[in-house]
Amino acid sequence: MKKKLALVLALLCLAAALTGCGGKKDLEPQSFAEELLAGAKFTDSLNRLDDAVVPLLYGVDPADYSDAVVYCGTAATAEEIAVFTAVDDAAAQRLLSAAQTRVSKQLESYRTYGPQAAMTLENSVVARTGNYVVVVVCSDSDGAKKICGKYI
Amino acid sequence: MIETGSMKRAAAVFLAALSLCGCTNRAQRAEMPPSPTPAVTTTPVPTATPTAAPTPAPPVTPEPVELPEGPAEETPEPTETPEPTPEPSPTPAGPKARRSGKLVVPADWGPVIPERRKAADDSFFNTSLMIGNSLAQGFQLWSGLHNIDSINEVGASVYSATKEMDLRRLYNSRAGRYTDIYLVFGLNEVGMDTESFVENYKDIIDFSRKFQPQANIIIVSVTPVTQWVDRYTHYSMESVNSFNEGLKELCLQKNCWFLDICSILKDADGFLSEEYAYHGDGKHLEANGYELWADYMRTHYVNDSLIAE
């Protein structure tokens, strides 16, 4: 009886440890984007981009993702949020590469707009977690990274 | 009381669980890539062409007016009848378009594309290309006319367009690909010399014609700025209006058309309407401004039928 009790206690500890593992929240693209919009201080007016424009902007193949949540500004700034749900591992890698290319190109373009724009891009988040590829360009880079850190 | 042996087994299981925890999810996560480091490219500073000096025109100081001396005798001067204030120009008369080779070009009516009787379907713009600055980028993002090809770069100007923009989509395009090429420049040049701006605009017109000689070249007017920007920065409506008048003249010289979106974006006082302005800088547009621009294009377009209208 005591042995059984000890074993049950040990199994409970194991289960608790595994579920609390890493402390990261599950990423849901739309909710994540909304949390960023509400929690980080964006200076531009960001609106959700039409799905048809996303491949034009990022140079990606729509077959590589099942969902893309992209928010862009007025072009006055480079602020942006993008979350792609890749269809598989290889697609996620291609999307990540495309995201990095986009941010690099934006950095070259926005240098003419002054140091703030360049700094915003240099402090951007371009990351992958599982099959999600995330891009966050925000002048409040600390605020954005704090939110991203809960998921990535 | 729990036996020592059982305690040891429980502790061992617990420690095993902790060590597993460190491995499981990290296997799912790639390392956060470092912030992208851009390739270091040396962007050549646009050199002034011999005919162009992109420097703002010096402010004009009005010369003091010398008042005429009064007559010795008090003979009243004949009062001059003031010239009547000219009435606003009515809609220009005359044919709107004519044929010049294979092109449909402005006729007596002038270069401003008139309102058409019938709105174009969005598919009309399948063979259109837009080249320009951040406003062209905003148009691509928010106008709803996603089928228009776009070459745009933030900060692009008529001084840099043919030297620094990636125009491969244009010069790699097959012959006859485009029926209309819209040019969107001026926002980054406002405050500079009008003559220099207009002169340098010819470069991108000629470049476009070189690769797509059959296309209508449509110069999109320089867009207005808000009253706040006009008052406190060098981006003045005086400069915007001067640019646009210069561009209309250029259109007549170069057989181009003029899309007057400036007129629809202005408020009653002649500044960029607060309804469409991005308030962060008073120069760029909110999404609804681009939608308005697209709606205007649907009713102001060029085709052969314009010759008969």
Layout of helices and strands:
The complex is a heterodimer of chains A (152) and B (309).
Chain A: H1 2-19, H2 29-39, E1 47-48, H3 54-58, E2 65-72, E3 80-86, H4 89-110, H5 115-122, E4 125-129, E5 132-137, H6 141-148
Antiparallel strand pairs in A: 1-2, 2-3, 3-5, 4-5
Chain B: H1 4-24, E1 97-100, E2 103-106, E3 128-132, H2 134-142, E4 149-152, H3 161-164, H4 168-171, E5 180-184, H5 194-211, E6 216-220, H6 227-232, H7 237-254, E7 257-259, H8 262-265, H9 287-299
Parallel strand pairs in B: 3-4, 3-5, 5-6, 6-7
Antiparallel strand pairs in B: 1-2
Helix pairs in contact in B: 2-9, 5-7
Explain this structure.
The complex is a heterodimer of chains A (152) and B (309). Chain A is of the alpha+beta class. Chain A has one domain. Helix content of chain A is 47%, strand content 18%. Chain A is built from six helices and five strands, in the order ααβαββααββα. Chain A has helices at 2-19, 29-39, 54-58, 89-110, 115-122, 141-148; strands at residues 47-48, 65-72, 80-86, 125-129, 132-137. Chain A has a five-stranded antiparallel sheet with strand order 1-2-3-5-4, with helices on both faces. In chain A, a hairpin with a 2-residue loop joins β4 (125-129) and β5. The longest helix of chain A is centred in the middle third of the chain and has 22 residues, at 89-110. Chain B has 309 residues and is α/β, with parallel strands linked by helices. Chain B has a domain at 111-307: Rossmann fold, CATH 3.40.50.1110. Chain B has helices at 4-24, 134-142, 161-164, 168-171, 194-211, 227-232, 237-254, 262-265, 287-299, and strands at 97-100, 103-106, 128-132, 149-152, 180-184, 216-220, 257-259. Chain B has a five-stranded parallel sheet with strand order 4-3-5-6-7, sandwiched between helices. In chain B, β1 (97-100) and β2 form a beta hairpin. Chain B is globular, with a radius of gyration of 30 Å. At the A-B interface, α1, α4 and β4 of A face α1 and α2 of B.
